Amino acid sequence: MGDVLKGCCACGQIHFTCRGAPKGAAVCHCGQCRKMSGHAWASAHVRREEFEIEGPIKWLRLSEKAERGICPDCGSFLFWVGAQDPEYISFALGAIDGPTGITLGRHIFVSDKADYYLLNDGLKQEG
Ligand SMILES: [Zn+2]
Ligand SMILES: [Zn+2]
């Protein structure tokens, strides 16, 4: 790795730069990710110090477990920071510009999954 990943929200107001090697690429099927993204939410995480955000990000606290970063204008759901691991930040894989070089590893919160799609890609399923 060593490559820098860049991404932005749908309207281009929020930009991010990831300087670390993303880990834990996963699709979350929980109800909050479903509501916020319109489907399931794919993300990976890095150490917060390896990640820069530019723009007027809005942090939402929908539960005690985490804060979610969105663009206040276009509503793109970009970031997730767990209350128990604030030194890490998860970011939306779909917001990366250009090739990601990332491969999904697993599905999480599968028990919360909506019923309109199947998981048959062979990846590990948890939760
Ligand atoms: Zn935006
Ligand atoms: Zn989720």
TrEMBL record:
The keyword Lyase applies. Residues 5-118 form the CENP-V/GFA domain. One of its GO terms (molecular function) is metal ion binding. Keywords: Lyase, Metal-binding, Zinc. It comes from the Bacteria. The keyword Nucleus does not apply. Signal peptide: none annotated. Belongs to the Gfa family. This is CENP-V/GFA domain-containing protein.
